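ok so for the tutorial part 2 we go from a plain amino acid sequence to predicted structure tokens. step 1 is just haveing the sequence, like this:
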Amino acid sequence: MLCQVLASPASFDGQEVTVRGIFTSDYQHYSLLIDPACERGLPPYSGRGVIGKDLFDAVMCSEAGGLVEVTARGRVEARPGEIPAVKFWVEEYSDPRSVEFNPGWDDHFGVLRSESTERWDDRRMRMCFVAGFVDPETRERREPPQ
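step 2 — the prediction. this is what the tokens look like for a chain of 146 residues:
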């Protein structure tokens, strides 16, 4: 479904859809939902209080964190002639699972490989600090609740 939305955003404009993809982010400038079979990624947007966000953050910040395969439900907004040409307004994340980079994937952006190898760097530390999984005094990672 992710590739279909990316191939023809106007066909899905204003519709609620559910997609499964791999979430990647630099935790500062961009986030993308990616399917290795697609040529591009779908930028997810969401406000605070999105259902499943706590679980999503816990997976991102877990010891095995990195790339997160997730189901996202939301509304498609086609933006012809703009960059990005489509926005995905997420209402709910569910079923997040940490995944490892698969060398067989066609990594169009190079982001999948870098996310899988960088692990616990400054960017992940910042994101997990905001999510509440870094002790503000010691700057050490806290284990997310199970």
